[in-house]
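Whiteboard transcription, Tuesday session. T.W. wrote the structure tokens on the left side:
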């Protein structure tokens, strides 16, 4: 199998997560990409990731501190994987296309639609591949969720109700996720939620929302990051930070197919944490299983009652996972799995890498392309815009930049 030479751009915690994914892809026997370089403006970060790559993959990638230097010294590199902080994605993606690279970019593509549109313009000019890293829909159980809905088991969709509440006044994952102009936890996590909501029920066309900052000061908690992915940099996290991004957004969503959604994203909840998700249709309901957990989904069908576990997958006899997913998770028909979170996380990113290689080789479009990634962001930013304007906001208004009051300070910060 031909292996496409790639580089990881951004050697922090997310870069390490993606390196683990490459390890899973190598182990699968289906690797169609090869890590040959690491680039980070902090050379110590790049060397740290390169050392880990040498241990994990058996080959130490070359280390660079700029894309220009990397392009000059290793012109054979065909693609880059952008794993920097969210605010810089648009800048690095534009530069990568100008240098002639194919791009896998962590979500969101930018913090603003104007930034997204500049990336899309650069991508179109380049003729290269652009894939946005939305891995959660690739989970076997999420694929099963989708198959059940598409098969009409719960009937025509009426409503998608989803929410979470946790966080207190802790720094969540990393400080920049509390800075409006660099990240923002609602957008950074929210694009994942939106991608799943629209993956299951189709496009959202309008949002009406309220938002708030409950905890303007955040404190370093007992745990930094996700799993142990960020431990190497834990000492760099200050004892407290001033937060500028919203930690509560409550939205009503109108889908193009007529369904209505309710979405609560509450990252300042003290006390008991809460997480819920339910899809209601004309024949019954689905409690969709959460990605990277492996728990079985649950149905409740009128006149039948609860259906869960293996009985669910029996309802869709034509449901099969692709070859790589089947290898990674152990079967082509999965109703649940026991894979630990850390492994499920790297398996799903491995699928993104493999798809990138396929798209470069075959000239095909990624599942989560630039337009899907932009719409995921547009729904999040429509909610924030709605809160500022005090009215419902259509997604088209955000995507065509006819209103961008909330985004204006971010665009100014990045000189977009």
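and on the right, the sequence the group agreed on:
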């Amino acid at each position: 199998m031909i292996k496409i030479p790639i580089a990881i751009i951004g050697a922090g915690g997310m870069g390490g997560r993606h390196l683990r994914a490459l390890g899973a892809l190598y182990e699968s026997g289906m690797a169609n990409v090869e890590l040959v370089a690491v680039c980070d403006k902090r050379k110590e970060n790049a060397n740290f990731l390169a050392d880990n790559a040498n241990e994990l993959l058996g080959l130490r990638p070359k280390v660079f501190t700029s894309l220009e230097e990397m392009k000059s010294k290793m012109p054979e590199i065909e693609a880059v994987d952008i794993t920097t902080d969210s605010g810089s994605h648009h800048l690095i993606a534009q530069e990568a296309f100008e240098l002639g690279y194919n791009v896998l970019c962590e979500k969101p593509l930018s913090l603003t639609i104007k930034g997204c549109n500049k990336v899309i313009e650069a991508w179109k000019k380049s003729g290269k591949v652009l894939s946005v890293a939305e891995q959660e829909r690739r989970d076997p159980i999420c694929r099963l969720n989708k198959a059940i809905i598409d098969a009409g088991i719960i009937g025509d969709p009426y409503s998608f109700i989803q929410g979470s509440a946790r966080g207190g006044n802790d720094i969540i994952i990393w400080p920049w996720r509390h800075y409006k102009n660099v990240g923002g936890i609602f957008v950074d996590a929210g694009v994942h939620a939106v991608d799943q909501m629209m993956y299951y029920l189709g496009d959202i066309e309008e949002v009406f929302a309220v938002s708030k900052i409950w905890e303007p000061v955040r404190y370093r908690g007992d745990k930094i990051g996700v799993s142990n992915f960020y431990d190497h940099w834990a000492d760099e996290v200050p004892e407290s930070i001033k937060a500028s991004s919203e930690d509560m957004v409550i939205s009503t969503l109108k889908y193009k197919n007529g369904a209505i959604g309710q979405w609560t994203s509450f990252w300042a909840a003290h006390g008991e944490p809460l997480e819920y998700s339910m899809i209601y249709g004309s024949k019954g309901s689905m409690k969709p299983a959460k990605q990277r957990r492996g728990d079985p989904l649950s149905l409740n069908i009128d006149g039948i009652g609860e259906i869960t576990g293996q009985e669910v997958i029996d309802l869709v006899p034509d449901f099969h996972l692709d070859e790589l997913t089947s290898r990674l998770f152990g079967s082509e028909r999965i109703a649940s799995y026991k894979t630990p979170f850390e492994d499920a996380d790297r398996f799903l990113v491995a699928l993104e890498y493999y798809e990138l290689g396929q798209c470069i080789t075959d000239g095909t479009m990624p599942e989560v392309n630039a337009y899907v990634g932009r719409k995921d962001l547009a729904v999040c930013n429509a909610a924030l815009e709605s809160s500022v304007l005090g009215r419902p906001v259509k997604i088209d208004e955000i995507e065509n930049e006819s209103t961008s009051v909330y985004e204006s300070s971010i665009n100014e910060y990045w000189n977009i």
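Someone added at the bottom: The chain has a mean pLDDT of 96.
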